[in-house]
Design brief:
The chain has about 270 residues and is α+β, with helices and mostly antiparallel strands. About 15% of the residues lie in helices and about 45% in strands. A hairpin with a 2-residue loop joins strand 8 and strand 9. It is rod-shaped and about 105 Å long. The N terminus is likely disordered.
Length: about 270
């Protein structure tokens, strides 16, 4: 719910209360007419109050602007402005305009998602350790109105109402191999920075551990296409994206990794 919807609801409730008080005032005056005929009813004045856009009318016997606002228990903040001022005598058909300045609203704070490696969980599996919970902060706003139109807004204070609780997800890092393994050369075939590769027989989305046996560097790639053509390059076991190639060696020196091992990773 936005601040302006909240404001309208709270002001609507205030208007209902004010109308009820005004009716009670009228009933009280009518009950005293017989004992004091005309003495109080002659002082009853019809006035209009416009409280930041919420307009209502009532009858009152109070003498000043401040007295009628006190009677109606309309709370004013130091930054609010009232026109005419509180000491102004009330005349029949007077209008009181209140420009509100300080409002409070609550903002939903989304929770964060944190991933943690779980070395006992198989690669590709995830497990929720903790569900996330949004938080709330309470903002005190200074809003300036001119002629009931908002002209500026400033945050005076922010307080944590409820802290957000992060969602924690365990992601498996334990590698379980299917037994499929090949050794040979690797080249690169696309300038994508994604960790993908092409293989002549493995299905798309298959995860493969690629190891450069010359330096021990490793990378896990997902099969995304077909290749290399073994009829033309019989010693090549896999084509890598340039992003994956960088993890194992320098793609622009020779463009070939000579001593590569690939292992298919079991996936649930």
């Amino acid at each position: 719910m936005t601040i302006f919807r909240k404001k309208k609801i709270s002001y609507l409730l205030l208007a209902i209360i004010i109308v009820a008080i005004a009716r009670l005032d009228l009933i009280h005056l009518k009950n005293n007419r017989s004992s004091n005929p005309g003495s109080q009813i002659s002082n009853l004045k019809s006035i209009t109050i416009n409280d930041s856009g919420l307009r209502f009318q009532l009858a009152t016997a109070r003498a000043t602007v401040g007295e009628v606002l006190d009677e109606l228990k309309i709370q004013l903040y130091p930054q609010d402005s009232v026109s005419p001022d509180l000491n102004t005598p009330l005349a029949p058909n007077s209008s009181i305009i209140i420009n509100r300045s300080v409002f409070k609203q609550r903002i939903i704070v989304p929770f964060k998602t944190i991933f943690k490696d779980d070395h006992d969980l198989a690669y590709g599996l995830t497990k929720i350790i903790q569900e996330g919970q949004p938080g709330q902060i309470e903002q005190t706003l200074l809003i300036t109105f001119i002629n009931l139109q908002e002209t500026s807004q400033k945050i005076l204070e922010e307080k944590i109402f409820t802290s957000a609780r992060p969602k924690i997800i365990a992601q498996g890092t334990k590698l379980i191999f299917t037994g499929f393994e090949e050794r040979g050369k690797a080249s690169w075939y696309t300038k994508s920075n994604r960790l993908i590769a092409a293989h002549p027989s493995l299905k798309k989305e298959t995860s493969v551990l690629v190891t450069n046996l010359d330096n021990g560097k490793k990378v896990i790639v997902a099969i995304a296409g077909w290749g290399p053509d073994r009829s033309i390059f019989p010693q090549r076991v896999i084509d890598l994206s340039i992003g994956a190639f960088w993890k194992l060696g320098h793609p622009y020196q020779e463009g070939i990794l000579h001593n590569i091992r690939i292992q298919e990773i079991w996936q649930p």
